[in-house]
């Protein structure tokens, strides 16, 4: 009986639910790319706020080891998340585990914006911890998004639909850049041709801007969670 069901899925004609699954799974990877690639410009803002140069605004920057830690934290979390959630998805089912990874992404994105302490080390340290937690959710989303799409698709269009899912990463990277530009403009975070933030703007705007940029990553993840919970478990 099970083989007949799987055979029917492989030979089914392309229908609306195939495209719906592509969009839902693709939005997961969109959220992943946004959260991963919004951090490089944020490190520039953090440098202006917490490591200001007394004379030259173009030389505001985080120390190299701290900047690398900010970037690497989410990548390390993603590596761990892929292993953990990949195994859980096989044992407990795709739907519930995928929803859990998205909830971790939502919580991690919001927590990053609330990395507020009284000292510089506490702010940056808590941000690194929250970025790691966010990365765990991102890591869980990667294998599950691809697996869900492959299990919904038929034999003839499976590769095309999976490619469509992963193409959403590019849109997520583009969105992170666009959101960063818009938010910095709203909060009056200026820039010079040399790459530094201009002297006419105070760090206060930058301190709000980087938090908003990170927290906005929770929006697509929350929408993806809602849409995914409306879909059934995959037959496979």
TrEMBL record:
It is a multi-pass membrane protein. Coiled coil: none annotated. GO terms for molecular function: transmembrane transporter activity. The chain crosses the membrane at residues 21-42, 62-85, 97-116, 128-148, 160-188, 208-227. Pfam families: Sugar_tr. Keywords: Membrane, Transmembrane, Transmembrane helix. It is found in: Membrane. The keyword Transmembrane applies. Residues 21-236 form the Major facilitator superfamily (MFS) profile domain. One of its GO terms (cellular component) is membrane. This is Major facilitator superfamily (MFS) profile domain-containing protein. It comes from Linum tenue.
